[in-house]
Amino acid sequence: MGKGQKSLTLTESLHNSLTQCWERNEVKLSKKYGVSTFTGYAQHLIEKGLEDDLLETRFEIVNRFENEIRVRDYFLAKDAIVQLNVEGPYGTVFCALDKTGRCPHVGFVLSDSDVLKIVKERGISLRRSPKSIPLEEAAEIFERFVGKKQELSDKEFIDKATSNTDCDQAQAKEMLRMLYSDYRIVITQERAGTYYFRKATS
Ligand SMILES: [Zn+2]
Description:
Layout: H1 12-24, H2 26-33, H3 38-56, E1 59-64, E2 68-73, E3 78-84, E4 93-95, H4 104-110, H5 113-121, H6 135-146, H7 154-164, H8 169-182, E5 183-187, E6 195-199
Antiparallel strand pairs: 1-2, 2-3, 3-4, 5-6
The chain binds zinc ion.
């Protein structure tokens, strides 16, 4: 075994099924997944499953203090400290990891009803211009509202956006427009009815 590699034990029957599947469809699978070996194929299957699981359970609040919330990001394998009520040029909700108040960690923290309550009690304004929301963040917000397993009409999206954030109707509509122009939603073949974001390639 090479450096930086670890082994994983599979049952004989699973290993046999995998091997047979690979041997029977090598040409097709190589092309489909961009892999050239059996090990590459098996690794790809695990990576793909892992990615789905990580995206579904990407964030977790692991610690909450009066002015600081520690968010574990399982996708980045890092913790992000989100600070509330910070003075200075970064505004009032600030992620120390990304050095911004506009990242997915801040978005996640603000989707927590307890945190949102504190923020509102302290009079921290969350209003922001949708024009200045980076697309990645807009996609995060959209993903949070829409979820991965349901479909929303434009009206439902706007209702959710306006009831869950300080966005007004016009801002929610603008966000929707941005999302439609730069992201498209694709339905994966493996799981019909599950929606994923993919950045539009054309
Ligand atoms: Zn962050």
